[in-house]
Amino acid sequence: xxxxxxxxxxxxxxxxxxxxxxxxxxxxxxxxxxxxxxxxxxxxxxxxxxxxxxxxxxxxxxxxxxxxxxxxxxxxxxxxxxxxxxxxxxxxxxxxxxxxxxxxxxxxxxxxxxxxxxxxxxxxxxxxxxxxxxxxxxxxxxxxxxxxxxxxxxxxxxxxxxxxxxxxxxxxxxxxxxxxxxxxxxxxxxxxxxxxxxxxxxxxxxxxxxxxxxxxxxxxxxxxxxxxxxxxxxxxxxxxxxxxxxxxxxxxxxxxxxxxxxxxxxxxxxxxxxxxxxxxxxxxxxxxxxxxxxxxxxxxxxxxxxxxxxxxxxxxxxxxxxxx
Length: 324
Prior knowledge:
Strand order of the largest sheet: 2-1-3-10-4-11
Number of strands: 11
Largest sheet: 6 strands, mixed
């Protein structure tokens, strides 16, 4: 091969390599396995939602979507792993009210819930419900308030600074009562003690409390949110009872690292919103008292910012600190 032929061959190879690289960069998303980090151990509502989303996205997009359970630190470990991952859409996270709402308000955590993440799509939420044990002589919020003003009461929660704690602090502030906080490591032992009479009331997520409400062991007095819940149509919302601002829910949504490509975010948002509109998926979520909450990426981002601001304000007003 003479020098001119060699140069032409080299140039042709270079052009082909550049073209190949360009093709690889513009390959449709997703072109390989996508990981969804669930910031909890297997089992429970967070894990269920993560696996439900993964299953639907895999079916819709034709690539494996796997769930990686990464518990620890109240979701901080999972959030950090997501924040530090490449912003290419191949590492996502099931964020929820703790990781992107109450934790940032309560704790000095190593991430910014808004700036360090891309809000992709809200999935679903379940309201919290004010309940009393069956032995507590209160059949309404008014009666519970009157009882609390006559004698000391205590309430349980899933832990210091959890949504189930902060909502009761909001309630105490609204009705001007005092009650002793009993924080537990998780919602299950907190419910066990209100069932046994060790504490008198609490505000768990509806999904966690529903079986005990149906059995008559817990008496529901009011639910959070903008409307009554379909599984408890006889229970009023706080708003109906004249208490404004009780719109919080236990919510779950998909987030990713900051600055993800807009095309990838749009594709995922579109597919998730399409999935949660399907009757079979709505039915599956309703079995856990979860209702779909369709939002655009921008709406979800604004929602997270509002959640952090809401709980930060309450924590400051009530002077709540971890470990106190």
